[in-house]
Amino acid sequence: MATTLDFQQMLRGAALRVTRPRAAVLSAVHAHPHTETNSIIGAVRRDLPKVSHQAVYDVLHALTAAGLVRRIQPSGSVARYESRVGDNHHHMVCRSCGLIADVDCALGEAPCLTASDDSGFSIDEAEVIYWGLCPDCSAAGNS
Ligand SMILES: [Zn+2]
Ligand SMILES: [Zn+2]
After folding, report:
1. What pLDDT was estimated at residue 106?
2. Rounded distance from Cα 99 to ligand 1 centre (Å)
3. Distance 91 CA to ligand 2 centre (A)
4. Which H helix or E strand runs over 28?
5. 25 and 59 in contact (C-beta within 8 Å)?
6. What is the DSSP letter of 32?
């Protein structure tokens, strides 16, 4: 489990000034992967009750721009944030309850980053969303 000190170090490593809201937001995103903004605001306010919505939005923007968090937004969902960055992983989304799970990038014969035709692009990211039903929802549907 990362500590406040780790989060301060991550901010410094990304050349961001260390502020309490930044460390708190980073910590909330680490603790709750694929969280939406409102839950992040709730988590941050447990430590810093006076922090404004706008402040949290601004921090999320800065952290995303600095590459410390990744923003994902499956269609039909609000923006969500996670701290697992830089590994080109993908997501599975449940059509019924909206649950999101991580999926590692396909490896081996046809990794995701090897496009069947790259049109001359040098590709550095592939964003794949697998849609379906999570175990709970498919169990509920079958009973
Ligand atoms: Zn589900
Ligand atoms: Zn993820």
Report:
1. 78
2. 6
3. 6
4. helix 20-31
5. yes
6. S
Calpha distance 138→98 (Å, rounded): 13
**pLDDT score at 54:** 97
Task: Name the DSSP letter for residue 99.
Answer: -
CA–centroid distance, residue 60 to ligand 1 (Å):
27
Across the 143 residues of the chain, what is the mean pLDDT of every consecutive 10-residue run?
Answer: 89 96 96 95 96 97 96 92 90 94 82 86 88 95 67
Q: How many residues does the chain have?
A: 143
Could you tell me the pTM of the whole model? 0.85
Instruction: Name the strand (E) or helix (H) holding 72.
Output: strand 70-72
* CA distance to 17, 60, 74, per residue, from 9 (Å): 10, 17, 30
Looking at all shown ligands, the one closest to residue 92's CA atom is 2
